[in-house]
Each structure stands twice: as C-alpha cells, then as structure tokens.
Design a protein that fits this description.
single chain; mainly alpha; flat; disordered N terminus
C-alpha cells in the first residue's frame, strides 16, 4: 500500500513562498474593492447587488475547493517529512534539519487553512439570508470552517485499524470535493476510511435515537400499568399506585424533553433512519473511486500471481 513516503520525491519540489507565509490573511479579492461581500444583506438589497453577490459566491466557492486541494497537498507534504525523518534522520544535525522542514510545512498548512477560513466567512456572508444548508445538494453546502488544531491531520495509511480508532474523528477535508477526487491509492484509502467513519457515526445516531424512543415508551407503559392498577385499589394502595404512575410520567416527560433538545429541529421524533446523505454528491465522488479501486484489484488468482 502506498504511504506518504512514496510521494516524498514528488513533494520535495513543493515550493514555499515566504511572503505568503508572513501574510496568512492574503485574499486575492482584498477589502476595499467594493465587492458585494463587503456589504451586508440590507445594503446589497438597497444597491441591487444580489446578482453580483451570486456571481461572487460562485467564484469564492470554486476558490474554496482550490484552497482545499492546496491544504490537502500541504498536509501530505508535512506527513511525508515526518515519515522521512522517522525512517532516515540519524544524528542531531539531521534531526534538526528534518524538524525545521516539518515546522515549515506545518506553518504552510496553517497559512493555507487560515486563508480558506477567511474566504469561507465571505461565502457565508454572501449566501441569502434564508439559505438552508440541508436543502442545498451542491458540493458547496459541505464546506465548513477548518479547525487549525484538529482538521490538519492525515491518518497513517500503512497502519491497520487499531482498537480505539473508532473513537477518533477523522478530518472532513479528505471527503469534500467539488468534482471527482484524485484516484491515487492514498486518496482512495482516505475516502473509504472517511466513509466508514461516517457510517459508524450514522449507526451510533440511529441507535441513540432508538434508545430514546424505547426508554420513553417503557416509562409511559409503566405509568399506564401503575395507573390502571390504582384504579382497582382503594386507600393507601391506590395512593401509592397513583404516586408511582406520576413518577413514571415525569420520567417519560424528561426523556422526551432530552430527546427533543438533542435532536435536530427538522428531524421528527419517530424517524427510524437519521442518516444524512447528499445523493448526487456521494454518487459523483464515489463512482470514480470505486471504479479505480476495482481496476486495481486482481480478478483471478492467476492475474494476482502475474502482478
């Protein structure tokens, strides 16, 4: 399986612009140009800039995906330096030089991520005031801010899954593309691992919602049974049964309240499957990866022996 070190020779020519590094807020469309994103929704309505705002939002969305491509390359570049240091750096001087390259690569990735975040804030400002991300099936709806402390990471593709890997969330930058992603072995493994993480998260959400519903139904059933038992009793037995029924009713109400607060506002409580899928996006990105993956797998023992 290909690793980051396999791409080290290709990434050694990755250039660093020191001027860019000193200016993380660099924007190809700087402030002061009177762009629609420089105005709020009310001002754009007054000046009739909605059409221009749509064009700028489209341009900036394309720029955001280009920036994500550069960020992914920078993260791979840093990972390649880390793996190269681990395997080949021997002695104090070699380790110092290797560490300096890692620090420069990390700074580059952070600069690019900061620029992306600045551009993403412009995209949010340009979107309509009634924009609904759940109803938008375009790739741009999957854009989100990059957390500099956790999202600039890449998994070790040479290492198999271990016991606690399911408790670690992968970075979203590896499964968001505006078109079919590259079909290198590294990107294919990243995509399928991200897809597996999403499937596990969807399963956990569905299980938790099912437990909420089951708990509430159980409390209500106990309340009904104790209330019915109290109707056929007298005196202290009736009072105790009614008191217990009221307790189960309060617990059911508390469970329903917790379920409503934990669930999305647009999700009905009786929904069995809470999986969120952008069908067009998933099919458009998965099909090239699956095709490439199948082409790389031997179809028979004889072909496997020849390869």
């Amino acid at each position: 399986m290909a690793t980051c070190a396999d791409e080290y020779d290709d990434l050694q020519d990755f250039s660093f612009d020191e001027a860019d590094t000193e200016d993380p807020q660099y924007d190809p469309c700087p402030d002061g140009l009177g762009l629609p994103s420089d105005y709020d929704h009310e001002d754009r309505a007054d000046y009739g800039l909605h059409t221009l705002a749509e064009y700028e939002c489209t341009i900036r969305t394309g720029l955001a995906f280009d920036q994500l491509d550069a960020i992914r390359l920078a993260v791979k570049h840093r990972a390649a330096h880390i793996e190269h240091k681990r395997k080949h750096a021997r002695g104090g001087r070699a380790n110092t030089v290797a560490q300096e390259e890692i620090q420069r690569a990390d700074a580059r990735a952070r600069v690019l991520a900061t620029r992306y975040n600045h551009n993403f804030e412009r995209i949010k400002a340009l979107r309509a005031s009634d924009y609904d991300g759940l109803a938008d099936n375009s790739p741009g709806s999957r854009l989100q801010p990059i957390r500099l402390d956790s999202d600039l990471a890449i998994a070790n593709m040479a290492a198999p899954r271990t016991l606690n890997d399911s408790q670690r969330s992968g970075s979203w930058i590896w499964n968001v593309y505006d078109k079919a992603p590259s079909t290198s072995t590294l990107d294919i493994v990243q995509w399928f691992r991200a897809k597996a993480d999403k499937d596990r998260a969807d399963e956990a959400v569905n299980r938790l919602c099912a437990e909420f519903r089951r708990t509430s139904m159980g409390y209500k059933a106990y309340a009904t049974l104790w209330s019915a038992a109290g109707d056929s009793r007298k005196g202290g037995e009736r009072a105790y049964a009614k008191k217990t029924a009221a307790m189960w009713t309060r617990m059911a109400a508390a469970c329903d309240k917790a379920y409503d607060s934990a669930r999305r506002a647009d999700a009905p409580p009786d929904r069995l499957d809470h999986t969120r899928v952008r069908n067009f996006y998933m099919f458009s990105t998965a099909e090239p990866l699956v095709t490439s993956f199948r082409a790389s797998v031997p179809t028979s023992p004889s072909s496997a022996m020849t390869t």
